[in-house]
UniProtKB/TrEMBL annotation:
InterPro entries with a match to the protein in the record: CheY-like_superfamily (IPR011006), Diguanylate_Cyclase (IPR050469), GGDEF_dom (IPR000160), Nucleotide_cyclase (IPR029787), Rev_trsase/Diguanyl_cyclase (IPR043128), Sig_transdc_resp-reg_receiver (IPR001789)
Keywords, ordered alphabetically: Phosphoprotein
UniProt cross-references to CDD domains, sorted A to Z: GGDEF (cd01949)
UniProt-recorded name of the protein: diguanylate cyclase
Top-level taxon in the UniProt lineage: Bacteria
Residues of the signal peptide: none
Domain (Response regulatory) ranges: 18-133
SUPFAM superfamilies: CheY-like (SSF52172), Nucleotide cyclase (SSF55073)
Lineage start: Bacteria, Pseudomonadati, Pseudomonadota, Gammaproteobacteria, Aeromonadales
Length: 314
């Protein structure tokens, strides 16, 4: 598949592809910018530190990385990007002026996908970038299918684990609070017993749909955690904000008005929610935050279901 066909194959529309050009010489950036500006969104950085910030914050689709730069070298930038789960899947192409075999071998060893030598030939650099972007999109596409819950089409547990690690690191770096909302459908076993499993599946799909509509900032995530359990990651969200979002989810599920004659919580399908919030620190862990949300969910159930229970960890 070529790049255009791949872009069409994605389940969700992909914005313009973004290429990051890193070089300490503005004239080199200008040359590459000329090659790509019509086709892609071009991001630029003139040193390694800046390059890593752009990668973390904007997640470009591919990087053209100068090897020799003052400060952090291109090789070191690549090593660090490959060590971070948030950036390790971005393909790196080294742009090198000296054609030394040893350098190339090292570059591949630390995770580069290709090399381009300066002075760059626009036709060659463009062809190589398109090839690697196509490969990257193919693997993104495969991964996205492997990360989706088959029934509800929200993220699955695997995707949740991956995103939680990424959000945790990001909030830790910035000193921002991270909130988790763990929720499940009230008396869902009885729902299946009364209405049958097909109806039960339809109910899960409907609930997943309203959760997706409620939780929609770019870095938020809704995932199916298990049977009738869902979990939401809300980065940069304090306790109050998370409680408000949880209440909005609860109201949205009630507003579906799905009848449930055997629910312990009332005549309609409802959810109970546990919220836990923390500014990630060195002596805390995402697992402990999730356990805290789980304990709050248990509290919400014990207090009568169809409600939100929340805790803020220090
Ligand atoms: Mg240089």
């Amino acid at each position: 598949m070529n790049l255009t066909q791949l872009l069409d194959a994605f389940p969700h529309p992909v914005g313009p592809l973004r290429i990051l050009i890193v070089d300490d010489q503005p004239v080199n950036i200008r040359v590459l910018h000329q090659v790509f500006r019509g086709e892609f969104e071009v991001l630029m950085a003139t040193d390694g530190e800046q390059a890593m910030t752009v990668c973390r914050e904007q997640r470009p689709d591919i990087i053209l990385l100068d090897v020799v730069m003052p400060g952090i070298s291109g090789h070191e930038v690549c090593r660090r990007l490959k060590a971070d789960p948030g950036t390790r899947d971005i393909p790196v192409i080294f742009v090198t002026s000296q054609n030394q075999d040893g350098d190339e071998a090292l570059g591949f060893e630390i995770g580069a996908v290709d090399f381009i030598t300066k002075p760059v030939n626009p036709v060659i650099v463009s062809a190589r970038v398109r090839t690697h972007l196509a490969l990257k999109l193919q693997s993104d596409l495969l991964r996205s299918f492997a990360m989706i819950d088959g029934l509800t089409k929200v993220a699955n547990r695997r995707k949740f684990d991956e995103e939680l690690a990424i959000s945790w690191r990001a909030c830790q770096r910035e000193g921002h609070p991270l909130s988790l909302v763990l929720l499940d459908l009230d008396s869902f076993k009885q729902y299946n017993d009364t209405y049958g499993h097909q109806q039960g599946d339809a109910c899960l799909v409907a609930v997943a749909g309203v959760l997706t509509q409620t939780v929609r900032r770019p870095h938020d995530l809704v995932a199916r955690y298990g049977g009738e359990e869902f979990v939401c990651i809300l980065p940069e969200t304090d306790s109050l904000g998370a409680i408000q979002r949880a209440e909005a989810m609860r109201a949205a599920v009630k507003a579906l008005e799905i009848k449930h004659q055997d629910s312990a919580a009332g005549p309609l399908v409802s959810i109970s929610l546990g919220v836990a919030t923390q500014i990630p620190g060195a002596d805390s862990s995402p697992e402990a935050l999730l356990a805290a949300a789980d304990a709050q969910l248990y509290q919400a159930k014990a207090a009568g279901r169809d409600r939100v229970s929340a805790i803020e960890l220090s």
